[in-house]
Amino acid sequence: QSVLTQPPSVSGTPGQRVIISCSGSSSNIGQKPVNWFQQVPGTAPKLLAYKDHQRPSGVPDRFSGSKAGTSASLAISGLQSEDEADYYCASWDVNLNAWVFGGGTKVTVL
Amino acid sequence: EVQLLESGGDLVRPGGSLRLSCAGSGFTFSNFAMGWVRQAPGKGLEWVSGLNGNGAFTFYIPSVRGRFTIFRDNPKNTVYLQMNSLRVDDTAVYFCVKYTETSSLGDRWGQGTLVTVSS
Known about the structure:
heterodimer, A: about 110 residues, mainly beta, 3-stranded antiparallel sheet, about 0% helix, globular, B: about 120 residues
């Protein structure tokens, strides 16, 4: 059971906008920033967003992170076939003194 | 170009020990916190341990505290994870991760090294 809660799967057609949610608590998302990672199966994860909504250089602006209260979300606009991957949210938990991850969301492009 | 290269993964018996290494290049190693994240077969990501730039502060998840030790050798640009008393549920791919300038997790990841604990 993951500390952060994500939907197991999300799907959309090419060009569509999909949103992945990440629910936490006051000990993590409620007071600490959220990072988002993309992992194509068989490869290492890649940072998509940090500090809730900052994008590393090279990450397309189709990916946008946001946060409100104890929940965060990652929006993918203009969905493309190459976006098929697993997506994870993560945040620091002040009670556990550890980074905690969501269980991951598999994005399927129909 | 920033690169992280892990090594040390292997098949080991329950109760055994293993040391993972991660060599960093393309950045000023001592300026950045580093850590380890693992992924059991078919499962999600789990942060295991991290330490700050000079190695003075270390953090662990409860399930490995007292069994695993993270440390770094900055002149060698290398971070290590010493794993003792290994258990079957430690079986996973272990990724070395670099933190950002503001100590946010994972702006660079290694390719991963597989640790299999089995009798």
